[in-house]
Amino acid sequence: MPLKVDENTKKVLNEFVQKGNLTTGALVEFTELSRPTVTKRLDRLHAAGCIEYLHEPTALWKLLKDPRSE
Question: At residue 50, what are phi and psi to the nearest 5 degrees?
Answer without folding.
Answer: -90, -25
